[in-house]
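In this supplementary section we document a worked example of the pipeline. Step one takes a protein sequence of length 75 as its only input; no multiple sequence alignment statistics are reported here. Step two produces a three-dimensional model, which step three serialises into structure tokens for compact storage. The input and output of this example are shown verbatim.
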Amino acid sequence: MTVGEFKTHFSEVLEQVKAGAEIAVTYGKAKEVIGYFVPKSVKSNTKRKLGLLKGKATVEFKSDFEITDEELLGL
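The serialised model returned by step three reads:
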């Protein structure tokens, strides 16, 4: 279902999901699937590997590091 349909029929979608339905949400002219709305009890078929960058990347914050709220929020 498109994002517009999803927004318009949100209450009905919730009822369908509660009943066990899995809803794919699409976006744009190509109607690319951007996400799925599934019941909480449904487990994902794909396992997420945690620590994918372990040992490959680091981050360091200097003691004088400062950022404004505007910078943080991208304003």
